[in-house]
Amino acid sequence: MLKEVVKISNQHGIHARPAGVLAKVCAQYQSRIEMIYDGKVIKGKSIMSILGAGIKGKGSLEIICSGSDEREAMAKLKVLFAEGFGFD
To answer: Which of 4, 14, 46, 84 lies at a CB distance of 3.0 to 4.6 Å from 9, suitable for a disulfide?
Structure first.
């Protein structure tokens, strides 16, 4: 199991388009991917879970990856958050 705290670089947080990108990337991995934001557990492969968390911009969250490809998943997610999902 890997845990990492990342910054949310999107000024407007994770709205519909970034949430779609995030869920799609998470779905590419066998590992269980969850995020913790403001005390809420978010399922990385569920766009509804991501949107329902109300993730605001310029904050941070914790990513938890657990499974056979956890290292690859974590590396990709760290890059995705650092680049702002290609938005903002």
So the answer is: 84
Give the model confidence (pLDDT) of 9-64 as tens digits. 888 899 999 999 999 999 999 999 999 999 999 999 999 999 999 999 989 999 99
Ramachandran assignment for 38, one of left (phi > 0), alpha (psi -120 to 50 degrees), beta (any other): left
d(CA 9, CA 63): 15
Q: What is the CATH number of the domain that holds 36?
A: 3.30.1340.10
Q: Annotated active-site positions, please?
A: 15
pLDDT for 88? 55
Alpha helices in 1-88 (DSSP H): 16-27, 47-52, 70-82
CA–CA distance, 28 with 6 (Å, rounded to integer) = 20
Residues pairing with 62 in the sheet = 5, 36
Tell me how many domains the chain contains: 1
